[in-house]
Amino acid sequence: MEHSLAGKTALVTGAASGIGKAVALLYAQHGANVLVTDLDAEKGQVVVEQIKGMDVQGHFVLADVGDPSECERLVNEVVNRYGKLDIACNNAGIGGELNMTADYSLEGWQKIININLNSVFFCMKYQLAQMVKQGKGTIVNMASILGQVGTPNSPGYVAAKHAVVGLTKTAALEYAQKGIRVNAVGPAYIDTPLLSVLPDEARQQLVAMHPIGRLGKAEEVAELVIWLSSEKASFVTGSYYPIDGGYLAH
């Protein structure tokens, strides 16, 4: 495999499982040193061990990205350890409460906005400051197909993911002439632990929404993230890339 990220340093949030894990492992396969962060230390450490088996450096940091001081600490940790931050993938997120808008709990709303939107802003705030010092860098934010369309019973999730797309575009415009690219990825329903709790009937309904006839794989999303993170995407910024098996083409 071509080592397109050799010598680069990457930070991945929510990297203990699912898409974040797939991204962290693929960064490592492409030659990057990876700082893995998550709230699940046990699984996060397993990912780091896999990374270390690829002749690159891996390190786990337990952090809650819903707390701005933790996001600042993460960036400092990367720079102290590796001297720079070339790539950041802001992936951490939750599905959150399922309820109609009028019935959505205030606590549920605050929680999902904090984890799915505020965390991306907090992380970007400190990542961008570091990348400006370096004169270059690239950020990939994990949005969703629900960053473009609505779905019933997930007002918080949909609002947060739409906002992540807007935040991505704004930052891309602000930092385009400073050597920093910022893009968002919009996966459809991916076969991850987040969906494993669903009963079979609900799963089949989800599958039916994807013209390709199946759910996506975390590794497929990671391939798109790697491309956006590499020099192959050097002219790409401020973009939103769906990876959705045809979901949005309906």
TrEMBL record:
Name of this protein: NAD(P)-dependent dehydrogenase (Short-subunit alcohol dehydrogenase family)
Keyword Hydrolase set for record: no
InterPro entries named among the record's database cross-references: NAD(P)-bd_dom_sf, Sc_DH/Rdtase_CS, SDR_fam
Annotated organism of origin: Spirosoma utsteinense
Family: Belongs to the short-chain dehydrogenases/reductases (SDR) family.
PANTHER family, A to Z: DEHYDROGENASES, SHORT CHAIN, ESTRADIOL 17-BETA-DEHYDROGENASE 8-RELATED
Swiss-Prot/TrEMBL keywords: Oxidoreductase
The keyword Oxidoreductase appears for this protein: yes
SUPFAM superfamilies: NAD(P)-binding Rossmann-fold domains
Database matches in NCBIfam families: PRK07231.1, PRK12826.1-2
